[in-house]
Amino acid sequence: MKKINVITLGCSKNTVDSEHLMARLEAAGYEVVFDSDRTDAKVVVINTCGFIGDAKQESINMILQAVEAKKAGRIERLFVIGCLSERYADDLRVEIPEVDEYFGVRTWDGIVKALGGVEGQEMDTVRHLTTPKHYAYLKIGEGCNWMCGYCAIPLIRGPHVSVPMEQVEQEARNLVAQGVKEVIVIAQDTTYYGVDLYGRRMLGELLCRLCRIDGIRWIRLHYAYPAAFPQDVIEVMASEPKICKYLDIPFQHISDNQLTAMRRRHNKAEAYELVRRLREAIPDLALRTTLLVGYPGETEEDFEELLQFVRDVKFDRLGVFAYSEEEGTYSAEKLRDDVPEQVKEERVGRIMTLQREISLENNNRRVGRTERVIIDQRQGDFYVGRTQYDSPEVDEEILIPVEEKRLTKGCFYNVKITSASDYDLYGEVVGKRLRD
User: What DSSP state is assigned to residue 252?
Assistant: First the structure.
């Protein structure tokens, strides 16, 4: 039996695609490993990212590394899938012909055929988990209709397509059967869910249905576009105890000039009003956002408005990126990249300096509180856990000294927060392990 090594680059949506592919390959009789340097895996599949320049380069470097392994005889077959392949397959076939075949984001299941496997709808909700078994990403849609000026995702993944509700529910049940306790709901835009299938936004209804699945303990919502944010989602988040008081909502900017140039479909007043509605309904809500600086036409006045927005909202989690031109997008074709790179990087630094101060202030307020924590792993002298206010891989962690007591990965404990730094918390367990 041959082993197949599936290497995943990019975002959590790619992770889900790889997990579906791995399940199909296993059903075809292959042994699958992931992100492995094992030399006994003679077939390699690389799931690429093509979103921004650095991600593209990382993907190309990984392909070239695998090509060298193929030339040296360490692997026999090499396949490339995902966003980079979707967008640049023709160029890649010319530039890197050593790859056996390139598949896109919607045709990657062709690998199963190429390797002699059998496809079928019965595999649509089956996955080989690559995350720790107590949490998993649940993708409820593909593509995006917004066509923001800087974003290549609609060009790569096409328009929004929702996964039927019954299929999402069955996939969630299958995840629970594998031991998953925390489900992280993702899509390019989760709040748009249902429009294409049901004629209206149905995320609130979907969240209610997921809450009724036995075994799910936490439901976390990512990638919620701020324009026309559904009121029923706010109400469900406020009332359902299984839904984490956490929301990833990418505002990108706050200046009306920049929001218009970015084609973001909402304005400054609407953004502030949405934050007010969210925090009024869910007072302990942890807000995560991403911001984009240095977009064409961004003035110092625009940037000062953005800094003030960060001061006003005091986001619990924040990431900021410098604009880079992506071919085929509105901004690349219609606007001039007129903000110097040095200015872009300086603005990134100013926001992150401010956010570090805000994060430390927010964390210090939590010292002395006792919070429910799930243990992700042991790392050196600490167990590493998270509260409902933190998503895995991207947010801060609670560190608990190993010598205190033996803790079990994937289980819940009450932890008293004893001290804080700007991006980490420290704590001690109170009482025994909590029942799931």
Answer: B
